[in-house]
């Protein structure tokens, strides 16, 4: 119990920092497009990835937005797990396994960014199984 009390302060500080981070959260909500823009910024700044890997990830982003055009304007906090699972079921029928796994991986990273900023507390895409 004493250890938990000591760690509580650190946990609360971390949560306040997450909630205060980012312009989108300061507006009161973060749309998927904001998280996607942050991901693209990190992608271009990641020099450990080869140019072709970055290009393939951009292709997966394009495929994601094509499969779900309204996604860019959707509040990330309002995207439920069931919608993610339904989208994955549809994509699993139409996409090659490699493309499916890479697209799902990209979606997971984007939701992780939303979690980092405090816009969401869970990643609904983590329930999607790889193909």
Keywords:
mainly alpha
Question: How would you describe what is shown here?
Answer:
The chain has one domain: Tyrosine recombinase, N-terminal domain (DNA polymerase, domain 1). The chain starts with a helix and ends in a 14-residue tail after the last helix. The mean pLDDT is 86. It has 6 helices and no strands. By secondary structure, the protein is mainly alpha-helical. The longest helix has 21 residues, at 97-117. Helix 3 crosses helix 6 (97-117) and helix 4 packs across helix 6.
Question: Can you lay out the helices and strands and say which pair or pack?
Answer:
Layout: H1 2-20, H2 23-26, H3 32-45, H4 51-67, H5 81-94, H6 97-117
Main sheet record: none
- Compute the average pLDDT: 86
General form: globular
Backbone CA Rg:
16 Å
CATH topology label = DNA polymerase, domain 1
Topology pattern, helix = H, strand = E: HHHHHH
Q: Classify the secondary structure makeup into a structural class.
A: mainly alpha
Q: Give the second-level CATH assignment, the architecture.
A: Orthogonal Bundle
Number of domains: 1
